[in-house]
Amino acid sequence: MKVLLFSGGLDSSALAFWKRPDVCFTVDYGQRPAAGEIAAAAALCEELNLRHETLSVDLRPLGAGSLAGEAASGLGLAEEWWPYRNQMLITFAGMRFINEGLREIMIGAVRTDVHADGKAPFIRGINRLMSVQEGEVTVSAPARSLHPSKLLSVSGFPDTLLGLTFSCHVMEYPCGQCRGCLKHLQTIKAIKRSRSLDT
Amino acid sequence: MAGPKPSKPMQSAARRRQALGDDNCDLRFRTDLMGVRAAVAESIRPGESLDVVLVRDGSMRSVVCQAGTRGTVGALSAFQGLAQLIACIEDGAQYSALVEKSSARSCTVFVARSKQ
């Protein structure tokens, strides 16, 4: 079984379309945009005919930065940094699916990720950490070396589904102003520009 | 001894516009909604008019299109001038969004100021 950590954002949506995991897994860990992420993820999974599961664990008291509605931590390189976020999400996915034959957990890390838990050393480390435990689960980031617009292109993710995706860091509806929304818009502009040049 | 120089009071968007002698709230633009809610979007049809509503969550703001009691269709966030739109709505300007294309996956609207 392959499980994808799925926020409904552009990167994980492209991965879902490209890799067709057995399960797309969305966690409401207390982040402010959780309702928007879950709505987007559910709609996309229905369109893609993929199994979707959600888990709700309120960790907001342990969060930091814009995702938690808190001041940015001085430790992260961007306002949305939440301590050990991907490590936590990967652990939840492992706990939830280990008894269902879980073999691999995929995460939507891409080349432009600024946080340590989206970079190659973390992927290697968490893969090693998970694989030495019961079940020998592996962790992969298939788009780690790709720019987000390249991922959209490589995956073949259709333009018709772009409107369903959701990347806001701060609200249930896209604010258009946070780093998540701005990256989302820049990526869509880039992919549309490249496709118009191709035609 | 002179104290610290008092700072100028912040100008509202309306005052700034008066200073410019221009109505910067006469906004018109076409855009695709973002974060489309499939269940609501599939119920709307081209030609339908949607309410443009400012949503607040603490200090955060988003501008969404609502289809009456059916709920929110999606957000107006993929266009230049979002900050101006928010400032105008906060100053009392009202807008509506005419649905041009719509499906459960996407919605294209033309936004213009409502007659007041």
Helix segment count of chain A? 6
Anisotropy-based shape of chain A: globular
Sheet with the most strands: spatial strand order of chain B: 1-6-5-2-3-4
User: Cα-atom Rg of chain B, whole angstroms?
Assistant: 17 Å
- Percentage of residues in DSSP E strands of chain A: 5-15%
Would you kindly provide a brief summary of this structure?
By secondary structure, chain A is an alpha/beta fold. Helices cover 39% and strands 11% of the residues of chain A. Chain A has one domain (2-198): HUPs (Rossmann fold).
Task: Describe the protein's architecture and organization.
The complex is a heterodimer of chains A (199) and B (116). Chain A is an alpha/beta fold. Chain A has one domain: Rossmann fold (3-Layer(aba) Sandwich), CATH 3.40.50. Helix content of chain A is 39%, strand content 11%. Chain A contains six helices and five strands; from the N terminus they run βαβαβαβαβαα. In chain A, strands 3-2-1-4-5 form a five-stranded parallel sheet, with helices on both faces. In chain A, α4 links the parallel β4 and β5. In chain A, α5 crosses α6. Chain B is of the alpha+beta class. Chain B has a single domain, classed as Alpha-Beta Plaits. Chain B contains three helices and six strands. A six-stranded antiparallel sheet of chain B has the order 1-6-5-2-3-4. In chain B, β3 and β4 form a beta hairpin. Chain B is globular and about 35 Å long.
Notable characteristics:
heterodimer; A: 199 residues; alpha/beta; Rossmann fold; 5-stranded parallel sheet; 6 helices; 39% helix; globular; B: 116 residues; alpha+beta; Alpha-Beta Plaits; 3 helices; 6 strands; 34% strand
How is the secondary structure organized here?
The complex is a heterodimer of chains A (199) and B (116).
Chain A: E1 2-5, H1 10-19, E2 23-28, H2 34-48, E3 52-56, H3 85-97, E4 104-106, H4 120-131, E5 138-140, H5 148-155, H6 179-198
Parallel strand pairs in A: 1-2, 1-4, 2-3, 4-5
Helix pairs in contact in A: 1-5, 5-6
Chain B: H1 13-20, E1 28-32, H2 38-41, E2 49-57, E3 60-66, E4 72-75, H3 82-90, E5 95-102, E6 107-113
Antiparallel strand pairs in B: 1-6, 2-3, 2-5, 3-4, 5-6
